[in-house]
Amino acid sequence: MKIAIVGLGYVGLPLSLQFSRSGVAVLGLDIDPAKVAALNQGKSYIKHIESSAIAEAVKSRGFDASTDFARLREVEAVIICVPTPLNKNREPDISFIIETGKSIAPHLQKGMLVVLESTTYPGTTDEDLRAVLESGSGLKAGADFHLAFSPEREDPGNADSKVGIIPKVIGGYTPACLERAKAVYGRSIKTLVPVSSCRVAEATKLMENIFRSVNIALANELKLIYGAMGIDVWEVIQAAKTKPFGFMPFYPGPGLGGHCIPIDPFYLTWKAREYLQNTRFIELAGEINTAMPQHVVNRTAEALNARRKAMNGSRVLVVGLAYKPNVDDERESPSYVLMNLLKERGAEVAYHDPYVPVIRPTREHPQWTGVRSVTWDRGTLEGFDAAIISTNHQVVNYQELAEWCPCIVDTRNAMAAVKTKPAQIWKA
Ligand SMILES: NC(=O)c1ccc[n+]([C@@H]2O[C@H](COP(=O)([O-])OP(=O)(O)OC[C@H]3O[C@@H](n4cnc5c(N)ncnc54)[C@H](O)[C@@H]3O)[C@@H](O)[C@H]2O)c1
């Protein structure tokens, strides 16, 4: 079997490697020639994916990458893993899916399977993607080619999260489409979870991510309420999670980050408007989570004030730029929002992140492009008035931070097990 995977990013690349390990030849397609060239040379551009795994797939497992969609004639199925961001008005931007559909359509052949994996609102596969595939190919979904949706459940940086053993939800445009998709994924994924339609599969992924967003918002709200009462929410969560049923821990933080949780809920709220449905819970969670960076900056101002310092002119170090621990992905990271807010208040801002040595150009935060992570040594760290722990990477030495930095604002409970001085730690 040979398949194509379009979009070789955080989702498409691990999926390609999983298929290729299972004996399926994979053609990786991407519009980024630099990524294609790196992959064909056996080089990874994602920290938690080993170059050796890619080199092995290229050398002996029939994996190769290309920008040429005409090569779709070589494959019997194509899986789409392209980005689904929000536009500047915070509405779904499915242009990457549509562009990919347009690139696939002229090369679509009878009997081929097309699966969308990108997170999106219910209806994208059987309305939007189907329309471009059908009009560009002259073929009919369900009759001439198969169409399905199967959401990715990648958890970057989690060593226990392996594509092959995570159950995979699949919905087909017709029952025959579902059977075809099951046959393809069944080659490589252990547990398949068939559902009755593409829309159910799309809605399942949104439910999973909205569940996280709402529960993180609840943890953030309780952090504020308990904080005002002098109760440490982290201690409360530790105790609550000993309950063997009916409770699942979620943790507060400096705000949401990454490509999924801050974005995906708004794919549903946007679509819900078409059906005149309100999405109060989801909007409220977004509101609470988005207010967190401001809370952290206010706490930092309080902490500095307690040391007779103004925010204006203080040197503040943000520790951790990636949006979660132990990964190098800083897309949508709340650390950027913190840095912007601190700068607006006149602070001199720097960051340290062992996984992000220099800030690459981003669409959202161009002003930070080229800024480098400061070195981790006593001389450098003693020069800061305060440090804010935004991401708790395991490799950071928090004991050294306690020894070198007089004032630490901790949004992740990273200092819990560290020996600190009185009034040095400000939880936020
Ligand atoms: N990153 C995650 O942890 C995660 C988890 C679950 C689901 N998802 C979802 O998976 C999808 C992909 O996310 P990602 O993190 O892998 O994105 P990514 O940005 O890492 O990778 C996307 C890739 O698609 C390529 N691309 C863009 N337009 C293209 C086109 N027209 N043709 C071919 N290639 C194109 C880009 O060059 C890039 O390499 C999104 O919908 C996301 O919400 C992501």
Which SSEs are present, and which pair or pack?
Blueprint: E1 2-6, H1 12-21, E2 25-29, H2 33-40, H3 51-60, E3 64-66, E4 77-80, H4 95-104, E5 113-116, H5 124-137, E6 146-149, E7 168-172, H6 175-185, E8 192-195, H7 198-228, H8 233-240, H9 265-274, H10 280-290, H11 292-306, E9 315-319, H12 334-344, E10 348-352, H13 378-381, E11 386-389, H14 398-404, E12 408-410, E13 425-427
Helix pairs in contact: 4-5, 7-10, 11-12
Structural class: alpha/beta
**Radius of gyration, taken over Cα atoms and rounded to an integer in Å:** 23 Å
The first-to-last residue Cα distance is 52 Å
Helix content bin: 25-40%
The largest β sheet comes out as: 8 strands, mixed
Cofactors, ions and other ligands in the entry:
nicotinamide-adenine-dinucleotide
Dominant shape: globular
Helix/strand order, N-terminal first? EHEHHEEHEHEEHEHHHHHEHEHEHEE
What fraction of the residues are assigned to beta strands by DSSP? 5-15%
DSSP E strands, number: 13
**Quaternary structure of the protein:** single chain
| Unreliable stretches covering 5 or more consecutive residues | none
The whole-number mean of residue pLDDT values reads 96
Strand arrangement, major sheet: 3-2-1-4-5-6-7-8
Number of continuous helical runs: 14
Describe the protein.
The chain has 428 residues and is α/β, with parallel strands linked by helices. α14 links the parallel β11 and β12 (408-410). α11 (292-306) packs across α12. Helix content is 37%, strand content 13%. Strands 3-2-1-4-5-6-7-8 form an eight-stranded mixed sheet, sandwiched between helices. Strands 10-9-11-12-13 form a five-stranded parallel sheet, covered by helices on one side. The chain has helices at 12-21, 33-40, 51-60, 95-104, 124-137, 175-185, 198-228, 233-240, 265-274, 280-290, 292-306, 334-344, 378-381, 398-404, and strands spanning 2-6, 25-29, 64-66, 77-80, 113-116, 146-149, 168-172, 192-195, 315-319, 348-352, 386-389, 408-410, 425-427. The structure holds nicotinamide-adenine-dinucleotide (NAD). Nicotinamide-adenine-dinucleotide binds next to α4.
